[in-house]
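ok so I'm stuck.
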Amino acid sequence: MLREKIKSLQFWLIVASVALYILSMFFTPFYVDNLKADIYSNSFYVLLSGWMAILGGGLIPTIIWLANPLYFYAVFFIINKSKLGIVPATLSLILAIYFTTLNSIMDGESGATTDITGLGAGFYCWIASFILIFFAGMMLVIVKKNRELNTTER
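replied:
not stuck anymore, here's the structure
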């Protein structure tokens, strides 16, 4: 049974996705115009503190940050072979892609913003992990649908 799982493409998509997500924590997620805002050079700090943007009035950054817990839900559901995993996987991917449309980000508790000047390797690893978990979820949906069709034909 374990040998069959290891041979499946879906298993390796999940492993690669989680590995990329973890790897993204070691790289800069994005670069900002304000050189004093060095908090953005640490992806792990952004992950832990991103939800606090709501306290400074940053509703959109907080909503985008929700891509992280949605990713974890997607991984959990997909590992447990639930077709529901495609829903949080899709939502997290949409939110992650939406981040690329932001021109500025909050710089502190005061609500002041600083311009985003570029995306770093941390962002690209982060979004690649979302893409891979989305494909793992799609594979699960397709495989389950094929099995349902095969059982109804008999």
